[in-house]
């Protein structure tokens, strides 16, 4: 007797592979596989989390009003145009389910963030990937890939895992070239790390019309990946849709309290951004110095290119013997690369030392 069966496309989804966190037989593990914040949890967020521990029998505020007000105040945005989610992944899923569906296409870039493919397929859409140029989104290729069935276009800027940033003029050209009824989702998970002076994480395009959404997260610079908090800034009609379909209590009491406190942590953003900029530069320069090709990254990670999949695998294995866990990116069609999070000073030094040794041996 056949048991219950999901829709056939569900079984074409490869489960998302999260960054590993343990290596057998190693004492000190350096987890550099998930692009988490390098400097841990903001102290105020930890205190806020502990303070609300007695309130856990209560449901959270389903509209996350206080958190939306805090986000609005921090970034100069109207809280009415913000929806919070259980990580930005949650909001990406909801957007795919609400705007995609059978007979529609969801468009992303060749090496774009994996969740777009998973969520798009789950929604029943066909996920189309436009080729990139130099591991960077190619606006012409994206526009060529648009069809009458395209409903949503995802662009992570900076992109994970490539770290590349599409210049603002190109983002504007993409929006201008897309049909008005195609939803452009600008995924700005790494926005806080970007130093480019003309960078706009999406606010201007959201405000300019009714067809662009920006997604953001507390999982990276704000140091709260474990608490699962993301948010979308969107035009009123999209906010209305998200509020109809999202789970009613999608952000816990503890997460809301921690996120509000993180935003208020004095100097946190500046300290973390300065650390990332300095350590990313040190890591990039050191790897280039020992003959590993590394593109400039705008995020809190780099993507060294080892030339072949075998060499990348060997480098990964070598780093593991030193307790360093990074992210293989074969699933992103980049088997010759590894993605390495910019950790704290000790972690960055450990990566440099391990890869220096690896390259010396490999000669
Ligand atoms: C580009 C991008 N978008 C979204 C996310 C999801 O973040 P979260 O669900 O933790 O908010 C990530 C996480 O790695 C990411 O790299």
How is this fold's topology laid out?
Elements: E1 30-31, H1 43-51, H2 65-75, E2 82-85, H3 87-99, E3 105-109, H4 114-122, E4 126-130, H5 139-145, E5 150-156, H6 168-177, E6 183-187, H7 203-208, E7 212-217, E8 230-233, H8 236-245, H9 253-264, H10 268-289, E9 301-302, H11 309-321, E10 324-325, E11 327-328, E12 338-341, H12 345-362
Parallel strand pairs: 1-10, 3-4, 3-5, 5-6, 6-7
Antiparallel strand pairs: 2-8, 7-8, 9-12, 11-12
The structure holds pyridoxal-5'-phosphate.
Residues 35, 87-89, 113, 156, 160, 187, 189, 217, 219, 225, 230 line the site of pyridoxal-5'-phosphate.
Explained architecture:
With 363 residues, this protein is of the alpha/beta class. It has two domains: 13-40 and 268-362, Alpha-Beta Complex (Aspartate Aminotransferase, domain 1); 43-264, 3-Layer(aba) Sandwich (Aspartate Aminotransferase, domain 2). Helix content is 39%, strand content 13%. The chain has twelve helices and twelve strands. The strands form three sheets. Strands 2-8-7-6-5-3-4 form a seven-stranded mixed sheet, sandwiched between helices. It has a three-stranded antiparallel sheet with strand order 9-12-11. It is globular. The model has no long low-confidence stretch (mean pLDDT 96). The chain binds pyridoxal-5'-phosphate. Pyridoxal-5'-phosphate is lined by residues 35, 87-89, 113, 156, 160, 187, 189, 217, 219, 225, 230.
């Amino acid at each position: 007797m056949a048991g219950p069966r999901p829709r056939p496309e569900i079984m074409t989804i490869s489960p998302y592979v999260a960054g590993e966190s343990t290596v057998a037989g190693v004492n000190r593990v350096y987890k550099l596989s998930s692009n988490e914040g390098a400097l841990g949890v903001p102290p105020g967020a930890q205190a806020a989390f502990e303070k609300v521990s007695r309130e856990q029998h209560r449901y959270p505020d389903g509209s996350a009003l206080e958190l939306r007000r805090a986000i609005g105040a921090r970034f100069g945005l109207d809280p009415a145009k913000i929806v919070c989610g259980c990580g930005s992944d949650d909001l990406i899923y909801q957007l795919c389910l609400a705007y995609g569906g059978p007979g529609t296409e969801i468009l992303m870039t060749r090496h774009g963030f994996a969740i777009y493919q998973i969520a798009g397929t789950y929604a029943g859409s066909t996920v189309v990937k436009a080729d990139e140029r130099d591991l960077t989104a190619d606006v012409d290729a994206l526009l060529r890939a648009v069809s009458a069935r395209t409903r949503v276009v995802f662009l992570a800027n900076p992109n994970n895992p490539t770290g590349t940033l599409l210049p603002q003029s190109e983002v504007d050209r993409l929006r201008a070239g897309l049909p008005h009824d195609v939803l452009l989702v600008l995924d700005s998970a790494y926005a806080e790390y970007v130093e480019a002076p003309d960078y706009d994480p999406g606010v201007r395009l959201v405000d300019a019309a009714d067809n662009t959404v920006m997604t953001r997260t507390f999982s990276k610079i704000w140091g709260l990946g474990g608490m699962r908090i993301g948010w979308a800034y969107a035009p009123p009609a999209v906010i209305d849709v998200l509020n109809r379909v999202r789970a009613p209590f999608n952000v816990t009491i503890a997460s809301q309290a921690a996120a509000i406190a993180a935003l208020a942590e004095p100097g946190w953003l500046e300290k973390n951004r300065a650390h990332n900029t300095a350590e990313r530069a040190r890591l990039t320069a050191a790897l280039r110095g020992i003959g590993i090709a590394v593109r400039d990254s705008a995020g809190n990670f780099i993507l060294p290119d080892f030339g072949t999949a075998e060499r990348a695998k060997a480098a990964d294995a070598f780093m593991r013997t030193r307790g360093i866990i990074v992210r293989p990116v074969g699933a992103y069609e980049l088997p010759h690369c590894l993605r390495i999070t910019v950790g704290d000073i000790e972690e960055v030094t450990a990566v440099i030392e391990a890869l220096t040794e690896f390259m010396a041996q490999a000669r």
